[in-house]
Each structure stands twice: as C-alpha cells, then as structure tokens.
Amino acid sequence: LSSGFVAGCAAATANNPFDVVKTRMQVGAASGVSSHAVAKEFSSSQRSTVGWMAHLVRTEGASALYKGYVAKVARLGPGSAIIFCMYEQIMRLF
Q: How do residues 35-78 score in pLDDT, each as one tens digit?
C-alpha cells in the first residue's frame, strides 16, 4: 500500500511541470475563441515545452511549475496505492 502511494507521489512530482505547461499551451490554443488574458500571452509566441518552462520560471518563479500539485498528489497517491494493492490481490488468485 505504501509503495503504491510513494510511486503515485513520485509520478506526480515528475509529471506536474509538464502538465502545467500542457494546460497553459491548451489555453493559448483557445485564444482564437476567447479574449482571455492568459490565452493571449500563451498564443503570442511558439515555444517548445522546455522554452515554456523557462518562461514560467522567469516570469512567475519556480513554484509556477507546481501549481495544482497538492490536488494531483491527493488523487494519484491514494489511487496508485489502491491499484498496486488490487494488482497484488488479483495476482494471488492466478
């Protein structure tokens, strides 16, 4: 159970910066539909994922890459623990 929880937390920690950039890029792609200020900022230039990460760190600080982290860990930690536990129980049946 604890192994699954730790694995879920590690996955959230490694993946969260990419998730934040992906979400910002999706908002930027929607800028043609709405006049949202963040959408305009993210649609103004074409950057790579690493370029957007650097831009976020410069403009908002390193903590910007971990926005939504607590919610993600609250979901992935217990979720992974349950999955690992269920997998072990099912494997005992076969």
A: 666 666 666 666 788 888 998 999 999 999 999 999 999 998 99
Q: What is the pLDDT of residues 14-34, one digit of tens each?
A: 999 999 999 888 877 766 665
Confirm if 9 and 77 have CB atoms less than 8 A apart: yes
Distance of alpha carbon 78 from alpha carbon 16, whole angstroms: 17
Q: How far apart, in Å, are the Cα atoms of 38 and each of 5, 9, 25, 44, 57? A: 34, 29, 10, 10, 16
Q: Which of 40, 9, 10 is nearest to 27 (CA)?
A: 40
First-residue to last-residue Cα distance in the chain: 20
Are 52 and 20 in contact by the 8 Å Cβ rule? The answer is no
- What single-letter amino acid sits at 94? F
Evaluate if residue 81 carries a pLDDT over 70: yes
The answer to whether 9 and 82 are in contact (CB under 8 A) is: no
